[in-house]
Structure formats: C-alpha cells, structure tokens
Amino acid sequence: MNTKIIKISILIFIFSFICIDCVNAEGVNERLKGKILLQVESNGEAWYVNPDNLSRYFLGRPSDAFNIMRELGLGISNKDFDSFNNIASERLSGKILIKVEDNGEAYYVNPDDLKMYYLSRPADAFQIMRELGLGITNNDLEKIKIKQEGDNETPLTITKVIDGDTVVIEGGEHVRLLGIDADEPGYPCYYDAKNRLEELVLGKEAILESDQTDKDQYDRLLRYIIISDININLELVKEGRAICRSYNPDTKYKDECSVLEQDAKNNKLGCKWEEAIATEPVCTVLTTEETGYDVVKAEDADNYIGTSKIVEGYVASTRKYSNPAIFLNLCDPYPNHCFVSIVWKNDWYKFPSNADSLYYDKTVRIKGYITTYAGKPEIIMDDPSDIEICK
C-alpha cells in the first residue's frame, strides 16, 4: 500500500474524534476561529482561521506560512507581553502577536490553552503550526470562507507574453497561468502556444482571478486570466495548445479543465494532440537499453527503496539553499511531493549554475540508488549524467 495513503489514513483516524463535533454543527467558523486546521482527507494541507474576519488562509510552504502569520500579526508592547507570563488573555485567543518594541518577534496564541508559541524561523514556525493543528474534514472546511486577496476586479493590460503560460502585466509583474502547462523552449508546441496566447491576450485588458496560492517560488502571480468572460487558461487547453496541471489547493477549474483536455485529445485538436510525437516528452539517453536500469514512475518510487532505478516524473518545485543542497521535488510541490532528488553543495560545480530553474517545470529522468529522505523516496545526484530533461 502506498505510504502516502497509510499516512493520510492514520491522520484521519487520529483526528476523527476531534472533528466529529464539527460535522453539521452551526457556527463552524466561530468555533474554529484562531485555530490551525489540517485537511486530513487530502494531503494534510494546513490552514489558519483568522479570528478577526473568520476567513481561512492557506499555509503552503514554510516561508508562505511564516509570512502569512506575521502579516496578520497584532502589535504588542513589551510591557503587555511581559505581563502575560506566557499565558495571554482570552481576547487574544488565536491571534498572532508581534513584539513591535524589539525585533518584531512573532508569537501564536494557542486557543486551547492561551499559551504563546514563538514563531522564529519559517521552518520552526511551520512545524509548530502542524503540531498544534486540528484535523478537519473537507466538508467542514468548505464551510469556512477562503480569504482571496489576489482577485483583481480592475482590468489590467497584458503588456508582454513570455511563453505559452506566462505573461507580464502593466507595472511589470509576471503572471503564471494557473492550472495549465504549455511547452518550454525546445519542445514541439512552444511557439504554437506562445503565438496563440499573444493573439488572445497581448495588449488587451484582463481580469486576474486568483485561486488559493498568491505567488509561486519565483515570485510570479498565480492567476486565471479572464478576457470578455473567457477563461484564457481553459481556452488554451480547449484548443489543444496546453495541458491541465493542477496542484492542491489550487484546483478551482480542475474538473472543467480535465473535460476540455480529454475532448481535445479525443478530437486530436491543436499541437499537443494532432501529432503523436507532441503528446508526451520523450527521453532518449536515460533508457533501459542504454543503462540497464529499469524505468519507474516517480509516484511508484517508494516501492523500489534500496534498488537502483531510473525515476521519471514532473519537477513540480525546486529549492536551492546556500547550505547544503538543491532539492528537486517531483509530482507535487513540497511538502506534497512524491519523490525528491538532491544535489549536495560539494557537487554543484558539476551542474549548470541555474540547475534549480533549469529542471523546474520539466519532465525528467533521474538515475541512481533510491533511499529515503524525510519519509520520501530520494536519489542523490553527484553528476549531470544522472539526470535528463525529456523532450
């Protein structure tokens, strides 16, 4: 059985006793204000319910969670803070306190016991939030409105098209089209998607509709582009110029996109489906014939711990730390990835200097010995020959 399924099942079992009182109860928002919620029926996504507006905020990556919690903070003087003796007053239940007279240290007031928990570094803050999290079913979570500050009802002009799924708007901000994926330079449908997107949006005013994640790791806005009531993201899929690619929690149009993609595929529409060569990226170097290693899908890699394989999958997120490594997360972005490949710092000189961005948003094959890292299957790469970008 897949380890992810086992972990989710355990979470559901543990938290089912906590969540049972929430089911069909009135005033769910009021009961859960200030709490951190874990979406146990999905992938354990974390949310914070702001006690001031009773809206929920998605706590994605550690840095996202850290920034959200600090942005929602309430300033407090040292005198008032010291008077609490680590137990805040009831009126501050569930709030984030910021010590404005010091260095802006942030503390989370746990609604259950009013104790104050220090939110130091992003990773520490993220861990505290998960430890204090309350399990909640998808049904109950949907009763709490999502705070979406990214929706822009004022039309903005598209000033430049970077590629088939990225544009620039007035003011210079880059926008990544949510829920889809178009070919990168060097791939068969790159110019087809880019040119069509230019026809659809360049120089036109658009409404930018958000989902739940505001920006990606490259600081690009994540949006659906709406022009004359047409969802441009879905239009590219409908025409067979892009494919669907959604990640939790940004799945607003996932089902609709899947239907359009299947229709385009069935009718062999557009560059993505009119030629068989363009449907899927192909690897020619890291193959069983060339290496003697079997090729396995990234989502199945946990079945091959302790063996040498070629793992194929989509690089959904990357991260380069000055110390100690570059991380390539496959299937879904961290922390919901199914597989990770690591390049330790002492081997960086062998790889391209932009390795983290080079492999991002690509289908790759990675060769090596499969072990585990933080509970996920991994391969440590020490040479560029261990990885191939499929085209």
Looking at this protein, list some descriptive labels.
globular; 12 helices; OB fold (Dihydrolipoamide Acetyltransferase, E2P); 8-stranded mixed beta sheet; alpha+beta; 24 strands; 5-stranded mixed beta barrel; 391 residues
Assess the beta-strand content as a share of residues. 25-35%
Structural category is alpha+beta
- Number of H/I helices: 12
What count of structural domains? 3
The largest pleated sheet is described as: 8 strands, mixed
- First CA to last CA: what distance? 32 Å
Q: Estimate the global geometry from the Cα principal axes.
A: globular
Overall mean pLDDT stands at: 84
Cα Rg: 23 Å
Total strand segments? 24
Helical residues, percent: 25-40%
Give the uncertain stretches in residue-range form: 3-26
Would you kindly provide a written description of the structure presented here, covering whatever features stand out?
- The chain is α+β, with helices and mostly antiparallel strands.
- The protein is built from twelve helices and 24 strands.
- The strands form five sheets. Strands 17, 18, 19, 20, 21, 22, 23 and 24 form an eight-stranded mixed β-sheet that branches.
- A hairpin with a 2-residue loop joins strand 14 and strand 15.
- Helix 3 crosses helix 5.
